[in-house]
Queue: 4 jobs
Job 1
Amino acid sequence: MAKKILIGIAAIVAILLVVILLQPADFKVERSTTIAAPAAEVFEQVNDFHAWEAWSPWATRDPQMKTTYAGSPSGKGAIYSWSGNDDVGEGRMTIEESTPGEKVGIKLEFLKPMAATHATMFTFKPEGEQTLVTWTMTGKNGFMSKAFNLFMNIEKMVGGDFEKGLAKMKAVVERRAAPNEKG
């Protein structure tokens, strides 16, 4: 009887391993919004890490989070590091590409709770007097990420954070743009 139980457990583990290994190796999370402001104004919210406090979906999750800035003040070479509670973890972002009013490419490195490196891109597309902002994160799923994705939908989790961040960014930029339109 014990032998049958062990064989059953081994079969379940083998099936689980196969299912995990068959999960996609690549992932992409992408969200967009339209902001009633010129692309240059929206671009500045992303290109300067100091501006992220006003709209980042993670900034309010840990009031005690420690942040540091290094490298360039903004644009290519700017670095933002954080260390906080379990909700925000620890990591670093480095702007690797910055084309004014068009795009900002960021290397996103998570150090804790699980080490991972992903590419993040913000693009800004003028649409009349508005700007279409698209926030994209791409990366590779290792074994642990593939296993995690079986139980937690990263696309929905991160996508939800992107939606919150873009909504906050929209509010910040449009609030700042409104006085300029009246004046």
Job 2
Amino acid sequence: MIQGFARSVVVVSVLSFAAGCGGGPEPVTEPPKTPPTLPPSMKLGGGEGPKAEARKPSADFARGKAALEQGNEPGARAAFEAAIAKDANDPDAHAYLGAMVEKNDKAAAEKHYRAALATVPGHEAATLNLSALLMDANKLDEAIEALKASAEKHGDSAALKLNLGLALAAKGDEPGATAVLGEAVKLAPKDPMGHLTFGQVLGKWKKNDAAKEELLKAEKLANGDVGVLASVGFELKNIGAFADCVRVLDGTIDKKDAAELRTYRALCKLGAQDKPGAQADLEAAVAKDPKYGPAHFYLGGRHAEAGKWKEVVTSYETYLKLEPDGPMRKAAEERIKLAKEKQKGGAKTGPAPAPKKK
């Protein structure tokens, strides 16, 4: 799909591993696997050429767009290809076709986006998607240049501002990114994704109060979208707003009880010192989806705090079996080794002793 929104910013969690097993901070869980539903301005067709460029679309392009809106992707693709066969410079057909092939062929997608921009400099949809590809490739200067050029023509495009802000943030330009992202949320004040993105970036910069304000705005505007709410909860966790995280995820889990959401809430409960609640959520997550690796990983930490070393090993080994190349692989391996050493040392089952006071 055409996406103006791009790239998650992952913030390191500060939750600590169980005292009985030692080790550094808990690795962060991955961002929500199911992305939030994109708002209309950022879905396939958002910022399309005909409207933005005040041009009449070709008949084949209009037919393709209608097919796409009906969920007929093969028909849409055939129509866009027909449009390009009749007019090799049809910018809108190139922009849409690029979005359709991007998942399987990024190089072809880039050619289509550039073809659209060669005919219509600053073409909004093509710029949004090309900039996302360029950011993926860490070609930040090129992405920024393209976005600025398009923003000059489409000054009211929140999606362009959003991508520009993300590119500037990735470049390390905090003042520039803050200003542009602020403009984006003003242009689309009712767009939850704008506030979510701004809050995410502010959280990365440890501007926690400002980040929380934006994230709570996204929550209010989510209109029940589980993807948005899950992402809001995830980011609230990352800035240490544990009580708000639990509250948001309570409502989200009422809508969709999933292992992923239970795991996020468990981490927020740990941050809020609700260890029984965290344990219950992790056990429920494992029961609901035994193949969700992070739930096993964090349940291993709860077993370690109780001194249940056999269960610790089982939990981390299950994680490694499910996600052999997962982001927490190294931590799991180290903790299995530590737990086995505890077992060999004849450690008794039960909570680890409290450290002696000096």
Job 3
Amino acid sequence: MRRATLGDCLSGPGVRDNAFDTIRLLAAAFVIFSHAFVLVDGRESAEPLYNLSDGQITIGRGAVAAFFVVSGLLISMSFERSKSWIKFTINRALRLLPGLWVCVLVLVLFFGPVMTRLPLPDYFQSPETLGFLGNLALIPRNHSIGGVFDGLPGSDAVNGSLWTLKYEVACYVFGALLLCVGRFKIGVTAALWICAMIAAPLIGDPLEQRGAAYHGAWMVWLFRFYGAGMLLYLLRDHIPLSKPAALVCLAVILAATFTPAYTEALAIFGSYALIASAFLAADWFKKMTHRGDISYGVYIYAFPVQQALVPFSNETAVPWLTNAMLSLPITLVLAALSWTFVEKPALALKSAFGARKATPPSI
């Protein structure tokens, strides 16, 4: 029998039979684990994968890369099925913005006033507080809020996780434009992806860049993963899904950990392994998130929770472990509330704009 292809899994009644929500939730949990090292210590070099890969990547960045691979695949499918830029834009806005808006307002109006060391009038007039509101439009001037977490190792950020959202939206727009070039879309996307694969190691760590170069470096770094997801979608009818192939890809990634090409291996082999796993995973794994996709809520709420717990965590024997273990259940509760009362009701509005229902959940 012909082996099932990715295209087979992305069409027909089985399109929703996948583990994307569970994978994204695990990725968000890995971000918590990674940030625990950085926030209690103040140094990225304290993170284990950073040391194993000789500074190429952290567990948190790897998890973000996984988000972008999944988005590259699912958002490309969403765009082609939307048949309209307006519908596509509305659908993406309904998924991303309501949860973000509520999170930012909760942090500024409730969390910040409780945690700040400034008098409340000074807090609300602080340039940092006002600048943080820029996150409502994905244009933050800073990730800190006036007087909040002063003195902590990560005092420059109240919610550092929000930095990726503007790049994700940029990839949505850029990727959609690539899908509009007709019969050249595969060739153009592949060419730009190869350029990103070559340019990223030449540019180096985006954190070492400044100004426009900083943002450009991050777009190049992240498009290696978003573009990989796009190519998997565009070539879906020619890509068989195979557990042995996925295991071989994982073995290659492990072998590449101690080489200078680790992030390149993640983009090439990790992307296939990730997408294949979403469809080949056991039913119990797929059903872990059948009640709703809380991964976005975990991602946007975890950082301030972890920051608030840093003083207590640093008083314990294993600070990073304490921070991660205490932050995870608190964040899961906040994420569940966000899904139930904000994100899910917002997604329900898609039907008002004629959104298709035969797509994987919550894309």
Job 4
Amino acid sequence: MTTSAGDDGGPSVVDQMLEIWRDVLEQGSIGLDASFFDLGGTSMQAVRVFTRITETFNVQLGLSALLEAPTPNELAAFVQAELENPTTDAIGHPGTSASSPWANLVPVSRGGERRPFFCVHGRGGNVLTFQRLARHLDDRPFYGLQAHGLLPGTHPDPSIEMMAARYCRAIRAVQPNGPYLLGGFSGGGVVAIEMARRFATTGDAVDLVVLLDTFCPGVNERPRSEQLRTLRQNLRSRGLRYSARYAGDMVASRLDAWRGQGGPEPAGGVDLTEPFLAALDRFDLTRYDGSAVLFKAERLGATFPADNGWTPFIGGALEVIEAPGDHNSMFAEANVGTLASQLEAVLRRAELRGSERGE
């Protein structure tokens, strides 16, 4: 589908969309059906694309629209539909009601016959970062839970408890009953733990909670002396090669920060990092009786304990798996295939254990 020229005879929506993509992605030639993700687009660039869309068309789209419409042609059709009918109401579409579960539940990957995996956003709030991971999973629907406050007319939830309650309701729109497979990236893992606790209170089983490089609240507040002691122990136990790589990673991280490439990814032009971290600071973490798997990024984590501080708060089994990359690159193309294979293996084991229990 190609949108038509404007009523005034000016450039069509799709022509203007192509121009936006070429400017933001800095590529002189982009086809109508080229995928944003295949072109190497980043979340930072996605934010700029959507900011330009708002400026050009006076239309506000949630970043999750890019998962439904990843090409210039498809995204232009979204804009055209919103221009013609602002009440459009579909999953991930701009007209989705803020009170609808689809305002938070984003089908990153719909395909597959296996039980769906539900994964909570990181501190930035958006779920674009999950696209590569979902694409690599085998035969499994993948739903991202994006933060309230990304869509126009909505505001961030002020507490982890409110986020968890909202996301549990959203999940029931797809899977009314357990057992569930939950996860979260970075601080989203804390929300996933609280969701699992809430599901347990209603009698719904949670077969597994996956913590994607999530640090237990408070672990960053350990005294500096304790962090340095952990660093020395980790460097001694892992050998000279690891020590050299850690030093190189630290230099690269400082350079990236100096160039403005580090830090959390913004969420659709709305900075949700501060309210999320404030909610995390207020959250009173209690022990979760179920099982969890922590995927710990192998790089730049040497000042943290091997379990990222989770052992006292996980009543069931806690498995720690080292994943390639660092906190900000574990979903990069070079690393995500390995992470997806590791994740799919633990999800299948959890499903098997659940079936053996008759769930």
